[in-house]
């Protein structure tokens, strides 16, 4: 990338940072992506508790089922990269290959393990080359159930006196439906038992697929978020692209069944740091806009916000938080909630 581009980007950045937030603007939500996963192995109670202690408004979890129908938190149902399952000889025969959302995946899958078996495993850092410090916690934490995460949230609410939101994603619902697991029904039932039922409750349910959200809209008053990637399209609707879904007519369709979109930040903020039309177009359709995923390391930051050094070195993530807030984004997913909370501009 040429130096001229960097200079133009930095000038645009400086200009945007001088623009005050609009009158009546609300504090941007800080959503802890899989917990404080920049500091602890993701999807562990330790990562979630650290995120809560750092002031995150919501904690986010990906949910997949066990063989006996218990929702647990894992980035994917294939768990060789996030647990020590490969070091358990008693499970060696369960190594398998299956097709999920059109892609062949080889490994060990949660749906082949009972909860009791799964809880003999221990979590490990998913990005060890980038987050070497997190590997010190490998082997310490079990895979948490969704029920255990809710229990943690309730305990921390009692301790802190503040509401703590939960932001579950149902992973690969079409695939799981094909093997007998109804993730939308399982999730709503568990949330209802825990007392989460209305749009006023601090819950967002998210999915990259469309059909499960349409079903959920008829099943619950909890708020729903359509996830949008920069490329591709929902696995459950052949021929439909995310690019089509973020056109004005596509956003109007999303607004018939969802309350917001969760979009790749490259769709929300241009390379010159200015906000893209998707933010205002989605909000004009009545949709909240949440952006994903902010991470502190150079590898994940725009070039002008990177610090000198290797990919693992921290850059200027806080500046990116400010840019997204001034672009009007309603919330951000981040692996580093402490940085985001500190960088957020409060309107209170």
From TrEMBL:
Residues 28-344 form the GP-PDE domain. Keywords: Glycerol metabolism, Hydrolase, Signal. It catalyses: a sn-glycero-3-phosphodiester + H2O = an alcohol + sn-glycerol 3-phosphate + H(+). It holds the Pfam family GDPD. One of its GO terms (cellular component) is periplasmic space. InterPro entries: GP_PDE_dom, PLC-like_Pdiesterase_TIM-brl. It is an enzyme of class 3 (hydrolase). Its EC number is 3.1.4.46. Coiled coil: none annotated. It comes from the Bacteria. GO terms for molecular function: glycerophosphodiester phosphodiesterase activity. GO terms for biological process: glycerol metabolic process; lipid metabolic process. Belongs to the glycerophosphoryl diester phosphodiesterase family. This is glycerophosphodiester phosphodiesterase. It comes from Alteraurantiacibacter aestuarii.
């Amino acid at each position: 990338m040429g130096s001229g581009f960097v200079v133009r980007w930095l000038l645009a950045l400086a200009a945007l940072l001088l623009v005050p937030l609009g009158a009546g603007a609300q504090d941007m939500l800080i959503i802890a992506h899989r917990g404080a996963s920049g500091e602890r192995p993701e999807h562990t109670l330790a990562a979630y508790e650290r995120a809560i202690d750092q002031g995150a408004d919501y904690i986010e979890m990906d949910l997949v089922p066990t063989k006996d129908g218990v929702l647990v938190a894992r980035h994917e149902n294939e768990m060789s990269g996030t647990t020590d399952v490969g070091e358990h000889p008693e499970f060696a025969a369960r190594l398998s290959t299956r097709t999920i959302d059109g892609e062949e995946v080889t490994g060990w899958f949660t749906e082949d393990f009972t909860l009791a078996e799964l809880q003999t495993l221990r979590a490990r850092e998913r990005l060890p080359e980038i987050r070497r410090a997190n590997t010190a916690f490998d082997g310490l934490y079990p895979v948490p159930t969704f029920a255990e995460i809710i229990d943690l949230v309730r305990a921390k609410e009692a301790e802190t006196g503040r509401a703590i939101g939960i932001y579950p994603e149902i992973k690969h619902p079409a695939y799981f439906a094909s093997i007998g697991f109804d993730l939308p029904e399982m999730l709503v039932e568990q949330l209802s038992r825990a007392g989460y039922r209305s749009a006023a409750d601090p819950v967002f349910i998210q999915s990259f697929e469309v059909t499960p959200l349409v079903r959920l809209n008829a099943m619950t008053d909890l708020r729903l978020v359509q996830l949008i990637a920069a490329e591709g399209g929902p696995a459950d609707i052949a021929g439909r692209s995310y690019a089509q879904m973020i056109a004005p007519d596509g956003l109007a369709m999303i607004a018939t069944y969802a309350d917001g979109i969760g979009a790749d930040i490259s769709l929300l903020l241009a390379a010159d740091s200015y906000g893209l039309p998707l933010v205002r177009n989605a909000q004009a359709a009545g949709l909240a806009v949440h952006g994903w995923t902010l991470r502190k390391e150079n590898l994940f930051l725009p070039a002008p916000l990177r610090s000198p050094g290797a990919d693992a070195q921290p850059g200027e993530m806080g500046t990116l938080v400010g840019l997204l807030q001034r672009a009007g984004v309603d919330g951000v997913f981040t692996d580093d909630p402490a940085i985001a909370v500190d960088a957020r501009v409060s309107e209170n």
